[in-house]
Amino acid sequence: MQPFNGNEEEQFRRVYLDYNATTPVEPEVIEAITEALREAWGNPSSSYRPGQKAKEIISQSRESIGKMVGGCSDDIIFMSGGTEANNFVFHTAVKYFWDTYRKAKIHGKEEGPVEMGGALPHIITSNVEHDSINLVAEQLVKEGKREVTFVPVSKVTARVEVEDVMSAIRPNTCLISIMLANNETGVLMPIAEISKRVQALSKKRGAPRILLHTDAAQAVGKLQVDTKELGVDYLTIVGHKFYAPRIGALYVKGPGVTTPVYPLFFGGGQERNFRPGTENTPMIAGLGKAAELVHRNLERYENGMRETCEYLEQRLEEVFGKEKLHFNSHFSGSKRLPNTCNVSFLGVHLQGRKVLSLCHRLLASVGAACHSDQGDSPSPILLNCGIPPSVAANALRLSVGRGTTKGDVDVVIEDLRAAVQQLEGLS
């Protein structure tokens, strides 16, 4: 799929390589949304046919999303997007901590955080998270509502190392939230290993157990995401990262039974009172269809993106030479997303934004879209991964999509060659 091409002549064709920022909506997903708008316009809580049709669509979508991430339909709670889902998890973890604290006091038990008197709930996350995790944590620290440890990633692997997470755990730790795949480097985090270690520790120490969350926004739709293998309690799903509309969902393992859920909102009882508000049936229909496509075609999607991304890196090396490039997505011993190439052109005048400003065909970014107002400042994510400031300032994040072709890559390479030559001519 090549958005932006339209009926443009070949010489003016644009090539979009910013799929980690957002994806276009698949035609089948658009059809599902359109059908829901036309046939399922009723309130899902009503008894007449348009309402019941809406309820059926929502149920089917919930089932499709559950299958996509290795869970069941009851584990899925619809959200407005990833930001709400991540905030929901942090809110729940703190509420759970204090609830457990109060119950222990009532029963006269002095165990876990209770013996620490006024200790605040403690959360562990990494220093390379998306802002919907990072800024929530920072704000709640400012408000004096919790303690947070930002575990630094390794400068060698760009991953959070399991032992560093375990070393950060305190008696009052109530949540560990580590992303599954980084949105700028594409590096995969060792979530399954962390989960195994933490679950073993939780059994020994008693209540409150340490809740485990991963923001899987960048991983879903690009590689296999199985909540059972990952061993997490919560997993964030973001539709516009896998060719769905801008809506999201939160996987919760046995919500309200096995895993605590404390709603952010109160209202009409929808979503089993976990997330009330009249359901956005058309967008939910689109999310469900996109999940169905991922469940059916993931191997093809993943292999296609990996082949195209490898070709992109090969062509970069052929045209510019290894000595002219630094791949900010290559780290020793780490696996990464199949579609992500973060690269810097080495040179004084080759800052990423300058290169992109001279590209006539390439549509890409220098990093996360939420950091687009930082000017030429190096990405904090790359700096935290050990990339030198002068290299990080030159970074381009090139992320391919399902329909990106080798021909598209060739167009991009020529565009980049012309831009780099123009900037080097200024020196």
From TrEMBL:
<feature type="domain" description="Aminotransferase class V">
    <location>
        <begin position="122"/>
        <end position="411"/>
    </location>
</feature>
<dbReference type="InterPro" id="IPR016454">
    <property type="entry name" value="Cysteine_dSase"/>
</dbReference>
<dbReference type="GO" id="GO:0005829">
    <property type="term" value="C:cytosol"/>
</dbReference>
<keyword id="KW-0808">Transferase</keyword>
<dbReference type="InterPro" id="IPR015424">
    <property type="entry name" value="PyrdxlP-dep_Trfase"/>
</dbReference>
<dbReference type="Pfam" id="PF00266">
    <property type="entry name" value="Aminotran_5"/>
</dbReference>
<dbReference type="InterPro" id="IPR015421">
    <property type="entry name" value="PyrdxlP-dep_Trfase_major"/>
</dbReference>
<dbReference type="GO" id="GO:0009000">
    <property type="term" value="F:selenocysteine lyase activity"/>
</dbReference>
<keyword id="KW-0663">Pyridoxal phosphate</keyword>
<feature type="domain" description="Aminotransferase class V">
    <location>
        <begin position="15"/>
        <end position="95"/>
    </location>
</feature>
<protein>
    <recommendedName>
        <fullName>Selenocysteine lyase</fullName>
        <ecNumber>4.4.1.16</ecNumber>
    </recommendedName>
</protein>
<dbReference type="InterPro" id="IPR000192">
    <property type="entry name" value="Aminotrans_V_dom"/>
</dbReference>
<dbReference type="GO" id="GO:0016740">
    <property type="term" value="F:transferase activity"/>
</dbReference>
<comment type="similarity">
    <text>Belongs to the class-V pyridoxal-phosphate-dependent aminotransferase family.</text>
</comment>
<comment type="subunit">
    <text>Homodimer.</text>
</comment>
<dbReference type="InterPro" id="IPR015422">
    <property type="entry name" value="PyrdxlP-dep_Trfase_small"/>
</dbReference>
<keyword id="KW-0963">Cytoplasm</keyword>
<keyword id="KW-0456">Lyase</keyword>
<comment type="function">
    <text>Catalyzes the decomposition of L-selenocysteine to L-alanine and elemental selenium.</text>
</comment>
